[in-house]
Amino acid sequence: MKLVAAFALFSDLYVAVRVAFWPTVIDIYRNPASIFSISRTFMTHVWSVFAAPTDENGRLVKRSLLLPHATGTVLDIGAGFGHTIQYLDCSKVNRYVALEPNLQMHSGIRQRAERVGFRESDGSLVILSCGAEDTLDILKALDGPYPVDTITSVLTLCSIPSPERVIASLVRDILKPGGQILFYEHVLSPRADVAWWQRFWTPLWSFFLDGCRLDCPTHLHIGEMKYVDDDGKEFGMWDEGESWGKPGESEENLWWHQAGRFVKHVR
Ligand SMILES: C[S@@+](CC[C@H](N)C(=O)[O-])C[C@H]1O[C@@H](n2cnc3c(N)ncnc32)[C@H](O)[C@@H]1O
Fold first, then answer.
1. Which CATH number does the domain housing residue 134 bear?
2. How many independent structural domains does the chain possess?
3. How far apart are CA 8 and CA 15, in angstroms?
4. What are the boundaries of the signal sequence (predicted)?
5. Disulfide: which of 42, 43, 45, 124 matches 23 by Cβ 3.0-4.6 Å?
């Protein structure tokens, strides 16, 4: 791996510190308790600047992934400022549920959702401030068993502790049989040299960026997911599914992306 690619993280970290350092200091000055969630505060300021260019960068993949496939009730885990909303076809999506534990991002979600007609007043927009790991709270907030037709995750599973367990629980308990998960994530590279650098940088990167890890094999966790039937037999979770890369992306990118669509088994 070229050293310039291995050390690319520094230029991103430098820009992140430049845009978010002083706003974070000001937040802590105004609300000293925010020192206890300093990484989250820092990430809020980073993402308020980076969300739009990052969205632009993944636009083609996200459009072809989300626009034709997202239907019914969509649960968007880690909705951020709501950039995924623009890829939803409102004639096929009747409810957008944004799961976003960072309360400072909720107004952005609300604005983007209302722009395309999702409103809290008529129930077509639901904003939940729990984390993806809080399956019971999500079930309580939505109605009935298996309330979700589509789970979307855009650049979020890297920030969730124990993502393999969390996504399995969301798929098992919340996603309808025949429902789908659509994801676009940066993941662990299949190249050993790139993966080495991803593991090396992860402690530093996740310290600044609210737990975001470079070394999550999210696409493999999802693709290999199993369920166990009443007789204790193990089956693949999916009726169909595949994951694919971002066209034109360098193999040496520390943020190596995979998109995927998997359809839950109908028992
Ligand atoms: C890199 S941002 C991506 C946001 C958005 N999906 C986008 O594409 O702009 C990751 C998001 O995951 C959220 N997040 C962090 N931990 C989470 C958790 N445990 N459950 C759900 N979301 C979480 C963060 O607050 C942040 O908004």
1. 3.40.50.150
2. 1
3. 12
4. 1-16
5. 45
